Amino acid sequence: MGQTKVSKGISITDDTDVESTETIIITMGTPTNATLGSIIVHTISVSDNDVEESKYQSISMDPSSITKTREKPLRLHLNTI
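^ Calx-beta domain-containing protein, sequence as received from the core. Prediction below:
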């Protein structure tokens, strides 16, 4: 007699890449000497758990109080908004 149930593990590897939701689709095949149930396609959505870092920083300062403390050149572009 063959198997009527089976368990399989799916490994999901975490990374630090910001990605859209990924999908795993499992479709049941044609069984021998058995009948499939009404649901033969199973869809699993894997949501990303990484957050995109902001590419821009907001800085508030008084231009009269800026002090340079580095040896290399420091370039600031200050605009009044």
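The mean pLDDT is 79.
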